[in-house]
Amino acid sequence: MNRIARVLGVFAVVVIGLTMPAWGQDVFDPSDSWVDENDPRYYENVFDQNLELIGQERWADIFKKLSDQAEASDVDWSGADEVRQRLIEALDSTIAEISMYDAQYNSDYLNRSNPLNTGRFAEGTLGQGFVGFNGMRPPIVLCMEGAEMAAPCNEAMHPVLTEEQAEDIRYRANAANELLVLLRGDADDAIIEAIDTSYRRWVNFLDNGFVMFPWEIGLNSALLNWDIRTPPSTQFIFLHPSLGVQIPLDGLSDPVKFRAKESLVIEVAGHLWYRGQFLDNYSGVSGTVVLREDLPPGLGFLVRPARGFSAGLNWHFSANEQKQFIKTPYLTVSVNVLNLIKSNRGLFEF
Amino acid sequence: MHILFLIHGMGRQNENWSVPVTDKLVECSGLYQQFQDKSLTDEVVFVPLRYDQVFDDLLDRWKNDFSGILNSEDTDDIPRGKLLTVMNSMTQEERDFFWSHIADVLIYRFFPLYRDRVRIELIRTIAKHVTKYRDQFGNNTRFSFLAHSLGTSVIHDSLHLLGATEWDDEVANVMGPPHTRFQALFMLANTSRILESDVKVSDSIVCPVGGHNDETKEYLDQYYNAFHKYDPITLIRKIDGSGMGSNFHQVNINHFRNVNVHDFSHYLDHPAVHIPLLRTLCGFRAVLPAEQVHALDVYEDIDRQSIITEIKSRVESAQAQLGDNSTIADLVKIWVSLKDVIVKTGILDS
User: Does residue A18 have a pLDDT over 50?
Assistant: First the structure.
């Protein structure tokens, strides 16, 4: 509807006749340089002739007019009338399909389960570079004089056309194509938006998400389900090392005991949950082992309330008695080791 | 206007990676009469696509870790996969080649999460460009693809997912067939079967009209597959077009104009490759039949027979080591041993 409204708006202010003159170029060439924008068959002029019907979305009536006009064409079609008949049949098939959608599906032409074919009249370049319309069955190929021996023009169903005949086909098929593109305009917008949404999810999951080491990619690839529309919304953490900083818990309230100490944090196993339509944030929890130079290993957990924030508690074994924990737990703040190295390489010696 | 998407192969690229490719195409077009008074760039917009930056971040994180493991004298007890064994036997130069070129291929093949991240990058870029250029040049704008090496696999998979995925829960995917169909796909050194994963080539919609006898599963008007007999990259699992119908065109070549027979431009240099491409872009008469016959007749290898013989012998010897059951690890070993035939630049002078 939006695209139709735009077209109607544009035509309200366009002054027909101020367009560029035709270049008189080769109609058998794939470019559009042959087009005379003053020709009544040119798609913008066809739009102009059907503004009211387009506004009312009476597509079957519009295509009926196109079919009737192709039938009444004053171009001499002798020698190649079967090609023009193929175009008329394609227009008539489209009318029948549109009428069926109007009657049975309340004009819902592009429902996912049963869409109208909107690509039938799209131009293409066929084998060896001939201009043609592959969406029609059989396809229409615009074969020029002198190319009778080149495939696909060496087939009987592709007779050589005069320039006038080729122009007639291209003008009329192009107008039909442009109308169908107009009809499906909202669907085009919806698909582009959906692809964009998927892209943002993937970027957030892999580029901005929690970094995975190779073994974690392997594990997550094996355990999680996803498709191209949306990446996994969860993630497993497994043997994930990072640098952290530890502070004795009682040091938070007693400045004398406040001593920050670097440590190696290994997230033995954990899980993340991504949130939001675009997976732009995540939370998670992991079981951890913490290693540092001056204490025996510590066990504990780490919590990630949101992207970039993590904190955990660890209890270190006693240096004297390996089977007992030190009474005071340590607060562990983990910073991703890779990001840390990247941004603060000069501060660390490895 | 014709939009030609260019998709690079393996290895790290820069923003100007496509310049040698477009220069080569312009140079080739200059051989023909049609382009004496107009330039290829008047009728074609070249759109280079990049996906290598997705690998770059990941590789930067891993490179040092893996190198450390491999260089360590204390790692004899670590069980090594076939690939790690291959890597451990490499010289430093070969290892650099591995990280700069082959790692991309292996990540794409064996890390499905990152594979989809690469694909969504291309899907979104292509969809955006299709919309943009249709708005700019009209709905009869044509779109084709020229892909090389790893890029053939990436574009194959990305196009399949772009056209076959139901992106919206309610609206039909009008970016897919039959609503949208691309003009031609040119595959140079086609790896889409070598790196085949979840998107199967035989079932893919990246198939020319007539290939599946179902217009909802045929995304291309034409499919051109250029295969060089002495390119080490494509020694196994060749694409032969079986089941793809008459709009699949196999282009077999075996020329030597450079040590690096795998090079993108080396493929384009051959008239059997660039003539169908120029005709697709600019029409059948872009290269007249007599010019085509002449170009193929006079096209010769560079006069360095001893080097040509040596390369042929090395590639044939490598091929003899491969069979139907050969794995990618087997192929990687051969790529490393033949790296001068894959990445070296310059004329046959070494």
Answer: no
A92 pLDDT higher than 90 = yes
B-chain CB neighbours of A220 within 8 Å are 113
Whether residues A184 and B179 touch (CB distance < 8 A) is answered with yes
**Residue A348: its pLDDT value, please?**
38
User: Is B167's CB within 8 Å of A220's CB?
Assistant: no
Cβ pair B21, B115 in contact under 8 A: no
**Distance set, CA A322 to CA A249, A301, A316, B27 (Å):** 21, 20, 9, 76
Residue A340 or residue A149, greater confidence: A149
A229 chain-B contacts, CB cut-off 8 A: 165, 167
How many folded domains does chain A comprise?
A: 2
Are residues A108 and A246 located together in one domain of the fold? no
My answer on whether A73 and A17 are in the same domain is yes
**Terminus-to-terminus CA distance in chain A, angstroms?**
62
A220 and A116 in one domain? Answer: no
**Could you tell me the pTM of the whole model?**
0.88
Q: Helices (DSSP H) in B72-111: which residue ranges?
A: 82-88, 92-97, 103-110
The answer to whether the CB of B348 falls within 8 A of the CB of B256 is yes
> Are both A335 and A223 inside the same structural domain?
yes
Q: In this predicted complex, what is the ipTM?
A: 0.87
Asked if the Cβ–Cβ distance from B142 to A117 is below 8 Å, we say no
CA neighbor of A120 nearest in space, from A148, A92, A160, A145: A92
- Assess if residue A102 is contained within a domain: yes
Q: Do A112 and B169 touch (CB under 8 A)?
A: yes
The tens digit of pLDDT for each residue in B52-78 reads 888 887 776 665 444 443 444 444 443
Residues of A in contact with B181 (CB under 8 A): 119, 122, 124, 134-135
CA angle in degrees (0–180, nearest 5) for A186-A32-B16 = 80
Q: Quick one: CA torsion of B265, B269, B272, B276, rounded to 10 degrees?
A: 70
Domain boundary pick from A132, A166, A183: A183
Pairwise CA distance, residues B234 & B251, whole Å: 14
| pLDDT at A44 exceeding the cut of 90 | yes
Provide the residue range defining the domain that includes A134.
Answer: 2-183
Neighbours of A19 (CB within 10 A): 15
pLDDT band at B317 (very low <50, low <70, confident <90, very high): confident
Q: Which candidate from A115, A118, A150 shows the least CB-CB separation from B289?
A: A150
User: Are β-strands B220-228 and A124-126 bridged in parallel, bridged antiparallel, or unpaired?
Assistant: unpaired
C-alpha angle A41/A47/A50, rounded to 5°? 105
Helix (H, G, I), strand (E, B) or coil at B233: helix
CB distance B2–A214 less than 8 Å? no
Residue A255: per-residue pLDDT:
65
pLDDT score at B260: 84
- Using CB atoms, which residue from B134, B166, B221 is nearest to A125? B221
Q: Which tens digits make up the pLDDT trace of A251-301?
A: 666 666 667 778 888 999 999 999 999 999 999 999 999 988 888 899 999
Of the ranges A128-132, A159-163, B343-347, which one carries the lowest mean pLDDT score? B343-347
Check A122 against B167: CB less than 8 A apart. no
Could you give the count of Cα atoms lying within 13 Å of A131 in the half-sphere of its Cβ? 32
**CA triplet B46, B347, B275: central angle to 5 degrees?**
40
A148 HSE (CA, 13 A, CB side): 6
Q: Which residue has the higher pLDDT, A17 or B253?
A: B253
Measured distance CA(A157)–CA(B267) in Å, rounded: 34
Say whether pLDDT at B82 is over 90.
Answer: no
Chosen domain end from A183, A202, A234: A183
